[in-house]
Amino acid sequence: MSLKEDLEKFYSEVKGKGRGYRPRRFISENLNFDNVEVLMKTREDGKCEIIFRIHGLKGEVRLPNASSSMEISQRSSSEEGKSYPDYIEINFCCIEKHETVFSFFALSLIENMRCSNPRDTLDSLLETFYKWRELFKTNNNKLTLDQVRGLWAELFILNYLLEMTQSKTHPKVVLSSWKGPQMSRWDFIIENKLAIESKSCKDDGVVRISSEVQLNNQHNGISDLLLAVISIQDNHEGKSLNDLYKEIKEKLHEDSLIMDFHTLLSFVHVTPKLLEDEYADKYFTILGQSFFRVSEGFPRIVNTPQEIRAVRYQLQTDNDVCGKYKISPKDLEKTILASLSLS
User: How far is C-alpha 234 from the chain's CA centre?
Assistant: First the structure.
């Protein structure tokens, strides 16, 4: 089973134990960390709690503020008269209309966890928590044009992957690979082997890289990282977000998968009604699409000192340097099918 399936099964088992049952450790063949344990429990108040026990972490930890839908706390233990945090407790209260949200949140925390050292583990957990806290703030604003373009690129790739694998694998496998709405490091992670980061741009080939880890493929067993650059322009003869939504919905077939799709869209404050009412008049056509294999020598900023954080930069992709790493449509399909063990 995949990490997502393992976690969903474990979550159901924990919920089935009832309120106030002691924490249970999450064990999966897809989870292999030396310095951290993952546990889960249901509290007396019915809230589900995921616990990260980070070994080797000492000293006072400053935690971010909680919100109306998310809680965070730490527990300390004493050793030789010294008090230090033994593990970090990150809590999320499932809202009634989205029972799947907690498992998505927990999966996002685990998939984005870095484990080079205890402090890095803590930092990566807090980074993910910050993103989810912002996501669940009351937000009645429409997506900006840049956000619409970014989501359009992600849906375009999701639709492309579903079409490529339509007769070869269940659409559930492809839908579960879409991680963009879940605050993951990459937009797509296929079977924990292949990651795809999608970027939309105009006709200049310049894309924005949002962190020093976004193009770092040394993470949690990922063996291959692709950068997808989708060049698009406004054009009434193109497709809207709503058009792509309808095409994807048709390929998913099953009601349960369509509900999962709607849940993922809700994470970016998009609903089927909003797609029809607010975004149906924004059309885009593709000027070009390129996929680059991010490997040794590809221009990027990685492995920065711990003191340097939140690095953002622009990458020019339409040049000879990046061109060396560009892969053909045939190689792209081969790479994707291999990650699904279908080649």
Answer: 27
